[in-house]
Specification:
The complex is a heterotrimer of chains A (about 375), B (about 300) and C (about 270).
Chain A: E1 30-39, E2 42-52, E3 57-61, H1 68-76, E4 83-88, E5 91-92, E6 103-106, H2 118-128, H3 133-146, H4 162-174, E7 180-184, H5 192-209, E8 212-217, H6 220-226, E9 229-234, E10 237-242, H7 244-249, H8 254-259, E11 264-274, E12 277-282, E13 287-290, E14 301-306, E15 312-315, E16 325-335, E17 339-346, E18 351-357, E19 372-376, E20 383-385
Parallel strand pairs in A: 3-8, 3-9, 6-7, 7-8
Antiparallel strand pairs in A: 1-2, 1-4, 4-5, 9-10, 11-12, 11-14, 12-13, 14-20, 15-19, 16-17, 16-19, 17-18
Helix pairs in contact in A: 2-3, 2-4, 3-4
Chain B: H1 15-43, E1 46-47, E2 54-55, H2 63-73, H3 77-84, H4 86-119, H5 122-137, H6 140-151, H7 156-163, H8 177-201, H9 205-213, H10 218-229, H11 231-246, H12 250-255, H13 263-273, H14 277-307
Antiparallel strand pairs in B: 1-2
Helix pairs in contact in B: 1-14, 3-14, 4-8, 4-11, 5-8, 6-8, 8-11, 9-10, 11-14, 13-14
Chain C: H1 7-30, H2 47-53, H3 56-89, H4 96-108, H5 111-124, H6 131-155, H7 159-167, H8 172-201, H9 204-209, H10 217-225, H11 231-265
The chains are: A alpha+beta (about 375), B mainly alpha (about 300), C mainly alpha (about 270).
């Protein structure tokens, strides 16, 4: 599978030239075909279909209980689908037990064997293959070098820090050179600073090894940083599968727009749509404009999504009553260091948020609580959502 | 954590996992369940001077005819005897009375101990629990025997009372109900303390602080918060003591008198002295029926305690 | 529970422990009594231990009991561990409720009923009663205690460890033997010890199921005790207490060593 990046492009997760999912001729490495998994009558995964390609870093993102871990366990072989098929390299793997699948998993708890040393943990999977001792030793050295844990061979798991344990878990699963590497909330147990560093190490590692990674996470920032594509899950179904930037800039539903980042949602009805864009009449008054065209009859109820950082805020000027322009009163200001969030009550009753970068050192706030302000944004910042 | 931790039904059953269930299940069926059916059957038989000493004997070689004769030969005679002779009724009542009273005593003695241990520092708790369990691991018989040393007429207890001038004549302790109660409380104390401790130890300390914060004095908080929350432990401990005490044999035999027997002693006598197997079996079946309700409750609690964690 | 002991707490613990240990301490002290009269202190002596060495009936009984305890504890540990694994890992199989009822029932069943029923079984099978019937009976009763001990350990066992082993290519049985068993070993060993002491301790069930030539130590002690207190009995009881105490100390030491590793990794995951 094509992998022609230099490795530096992975920053932010999007590799410009790597997009096999856009190629209709590309054969997926992993294919879920209408897979359902029920525990009793409760569906954890609900007739879900998904293709994942060789060399891809795919993230399953969703709130807890959405079925993402179950999906991972189905692929690892710990659960059996109630319906549908799971194909690996075109082969149905339903009857392959976990210990025969060329798939390895890094567990959320790491599941390091407490009675074995670091070397013993890494060697565990290799011994099951019956490799000669010299080769096992070489592979252990190679893997520990890869995760920068040389010299820790004889330590027991309880003698390691959380970050070191996480690396052992990585090395242990990767030592088997799996076709697909599964990571179940791999960074959840680490503290914030370490988590951010480790994200970049994960993308580096994936780049070096050229393996297919599937990560499960509830942390959207994590998913956006590491993944080529993200599958957003809710109630056992995939709501949207896109690249990180597409997901943020072009969410396909209110649910996704709201789940990924912060958003203002304004209800309205389509007044006109055409090549020059779409005009929407706000339900609470005012007129909104979006640069995109929508394929719905006039008068349909839609929602305009605007990210707070795309909203400009200014002291009110009398002439400002155009499209995508609203006057209001500042309710509250949240100072977050890098940005300030202004919560504004519009004259039509809606509440909107605007995020403003604090470019200069804040000595005196030009706009304060209770001030009259006007908010505005570009038509290209509006996303029209029909569901 | 999301969905990883729950127990899940397995996907398919290999012969290996079938074997894990089958081997212990067959063992228990053969050596626990079947023997009970035999007891039930013999309780419906009649005494005979033969080997084995009861009738009828199921003759499998005689086929269906043999089975019919076998069924026809069953009788309720042993149960009729249990009902007619007041000795048995008295024996059952005495067993239940002793079991109930000693369970109450155990609760009174065990609760303060369990409560004290639960309030001790973490490290001390482990040691204290160990100290409670340790005598339980030294033979039961030894512990009863130790009390004979103390309670006999020229034993230590009387020596001490005489030396202190509390009594003039040595008192009779051995072969009295007092001795039985002492022996039972002594032997069963760990069975009461451990479940009580387990439920008290799990209790959230902030609950009592919250009660105090809401204006509740400590003794009231104990009664309104601690006691209700330790109720599962109280019930488990009480059942764990009551059931085996009701069937106790060794303690009343060695420490008690010979006027009224506990049911365990009656069964033992019927079996070993009178060689009346059908009546001994009927005594066992009746005892089991009496204890059935507490046993079922105990089982239910045990399963819930182990599986809801 | 709040830590911090009141005077009442300390008193109740102290009285409780005194109640539990004083009789045993008195027994141990009197086993060193030189006087034949049990209640008269005649100075320190080990004569009753020496006398014990010449009591071949008592020694035979002790040897029989030890062999029965060893064999039945070993068998009970295997069966009890299997039963625990079945209850925790086999999920919902047909007859699970009946199975767990059968596992827990012997725990509370009055010994006298269990003993009688096992004897009647052996009679029905026309089996020669003796060493092996007692061993079978003890295996059956003590395996349930092993099950309880191992089951509670398995319930707190992080299943993802076993899954990780399978994920790395180990078939289920090998995953159990190389990962689960070493980690639950302290519980299995504790179960074995418990089964061993229970077997060594049992009078009622052994009395029912034994036959000629297989007198166990408790049966022997019981028949002596019925005739009155004897100093030799004090001595043999002291030896038994010492053996149990040593065993417990050894188990505690083993436990300490393995506890570290266990706390180290397995309590944390989820």
């Amino acid at each position: 599978m094509a992998r022609d990046g230099t490795g530096n492009e992975t920053l932010g997760g999007a590799r410009a030239s790597f997009a096999p999912w856009t190629d209709p001729a590309a054969r997926p490495l992993v294919r879920f075909e209408a897979v359902a998994k029920r525990f009793g009558v409760v569906p954890a995964v609900d007739r879900l279909s998904l293709d994942i390609y060789e060399g891809e870093f795919f993230a399953l993102l969703g709130p807890s209980g959405c079925g993402k871990t179950t999906l991972l366990r189905l692929l690892a072989g710990f659960e059996r689908p109630s319906e549908g098929r799971i194909l690996l390299d075109g082969q149905d793997i339903a009857d392959v037990p976990p210990h025969h699948r060329p798939v390895n998993m890094m567990f959320q708890s790491y599941a390091l064997f407490p009675h074995l040393t670091v070397a013993g943990n890494v060697a565990f999977g290799l011994k099951q293959e019956g490799l000669p001792k010299a080769e096992i030793d070489a592979r252990i050295a190679e893997m520990l070098a890869l995760v920068k844990l040389e010299g820790f061979e004889q330590r027991k798991p309880h003698q390691l820090s959380g970050g070191q344990r996480q690396r052992v878990a990585l090395a242990r699963a990767l030592a088997k050179r799996p076709r697909v590497f599964l990571l179940d909330e791999p960074l959840a147990a680490l503290d914030r600073k370490l988590r951010e560093d480790t994200r970049f190490e994960l993308t580096d590692l994936q780049d070096k090894l050229g393996l297919t990674f599937i990560i499960v996470t509830h942390d959207q920032e994590e998913a956006m940083t590491v993944a080529d594509r993200i599958g957003v899950m809710s109630r056992g179904q995939l709501v949207q599968v896109s690249t990180p930037s597409e997901l943020y800039e072009q969410p396909n539903s209110r649910w996704v727009a709201d789940f990924i980042g912060d958003v203002n949602l304004i209800e309205g009805r389509v007044a006109s749509t055409g090549p020059q864009g779409t005009e929407i009449k706000g339900e609470a008054g005012g007129r909104l404009r979006a640069a995109q065209t929508v394929d719905v009859p006039l008068g349909t109820l839609v929602w305009v999504a605007v990210r707070p950082e795309k909203v400009s805020i200014a002291a009110e000027t009398p002439s400002m009553t155009t499209e995508n322009g609203f006057a209001g009163t500042v309710l509250d200001i949240g100072y977050l260091g890098g940005v300030s969030i202004y919560k504004v009550k519009l004259d039509n009753g809606l509440i909107m948020k605007a995020a403003v970068a604090n470019r200069t050192r804040l000595v005196e706030r030009p706009i304060g609580s209770g001030d009259r302000v006007s908010l505005s944004w570009e038509p290209t910042a509006s996303v029209v959502l029909t569901r | 954590m999301s969905e990883t931790g729950q127990q899940r039904p397995p996907q398919r059953r290999s012969w290996g996992s079938r074997l894990v269930v089958l081997v212990p299940a067959l063992w228990l069926a053969a050596f626990f369940l079947v023997p009970f059916l035999i007891v039930l059957k013999i309780s419906l038989s009649q005494t005979a001077i033969a080997q084995p000493p009861y009738l009828p004997v199921l003759d499998l070689a005689a086929g269906w005819q043999g089975f019919r004769e076998f069924i026809a030969g069953l009788s309720l005679e042993s149960y009729a005897m249990l009902a007619s002779d007041s000795l048995y009724l008295a024996s059952y009542l005495r067993s239940l009375e002793i079991a109930a009273l000693s369970t109450m005593m155990l609760l009174l003695v065990g609760y303060p101990i369990a409560y004290g241990i639960a309030r001790a520092p973490r490290r001390a708790q482990t040691v204290l629990v160990m100290l409670i369990v340790l005598p339980f691991l030294t033979a039961f018989l030894i512990r009863i025997y130790a009390w004979i040393n103390i309670l006999q007429r020229d034993g230590l207890l009387n020596d001490m009372l005489l030396a202190l001038g509390l009594v003039r004549e040595p008192l009779t302790w051995l072969s009295t109900d007092t001795a039985i109660y002492i022996g039972i409380v002594y032997s069963y104390l760990p069975f009461m303390v451990l479940p009580l401790y387990a439920s008290l130890e799990r209790m959230d300390e902030t609950l009592l602080e919250a009660a105090a914060d809401l204006g509740c004095p400590w003794w009231k908080a104990f009664w309104l918060v601690t006691v209700p929350l330790s109720l599962p432990g109280v019930i488990a401990g009480a059942l764990l003591c009551f059931i085996p005490i009701a069937g106790e044999f060794v303690i009343p035999d060695l420490l008690g008198g010979s006027d009224t027997l506990m049911i365990g002693q009656t069964l033992w006598t019927e079996f070993f002295a009178n060689k009346d197997w059908p009546v001994a079996s009927a005594v066992a079946v009746a005892l089991l029926l009496i204890l059935l309700v507490p046993i079922v409750i105990y089982q239910h609690l045990q399963m819930r305690a182990l599986e809801d964690r | 529970m709040r830590r911090g002991l009141s005077a009442f707490n300390v008193t109740s613990i102290a009285l409780g422990l005194a109640f539990l240990y004083l009789p045993i301490a008195i027994l141990v002290i009197y086993s060193f009594n030189a006087s034949r009269l049990v209640t008269v202190w005649g100075g320190w002596s080990t004569r009753w231990y020496v006398a014990l060495l010449h009591d071949s009936a008592m020694l035979d009984a002790a040897w029989t009991s030890l062999r029965i305890a060893f064999l039945s504890a070993t068998a009970a540990t295997v069966l009890g561990t299997l039963a625990a694994a079945a209850l925790v890992r086999a999920g919902r199989f047909h007859g699970r409720t009946a199975f767990s009822a059968m596992v827990y029932a012997p725990l509370v069943m009055p010994e006298i009923i269990t003993g009688l029923s096992l004897l009647l079984l052996f009679v029905a099978l026309d089996a020669d009663r003796g060493f092996w019937t007692v061993t079978l009976a003890h295996t059956t009763v003590t395996m349930c205690f092993v099950t309880i001990v191992v089951q509670s350990r398995l319930l707190s066992f992080d299943t993802s460890l076993e899954e990780a082993a399978m994920d790395l290519g180990a078939p289920p049985l090998r995953a159990f033997l190389t990962v689960t068993l070493p980690l639950i070993f302290p519980a299995v060993a504790a179960g074995w010890m418990l089964a061993f002491t229970l077997s060594l301790d049992d009078l009622v069930i052994a009395s029912f199921t034994t036959g000629p030539g297989a007198t166990t130590l408790p049966i022997r002690i019981y028949s002596e005790v019925r005739l009155g207190v004897k100093p030799e009995i004090n001595a043999i009881c002291t030896i038994m207490i010492a053996v149990v105490a040593l065993g417990v100390v050894a188990a505690a030491l083993i436990g300490k060593r393995t506890e570290l590793a266990r706390v180290g990794a397995d309590g944390r995951g989820g």
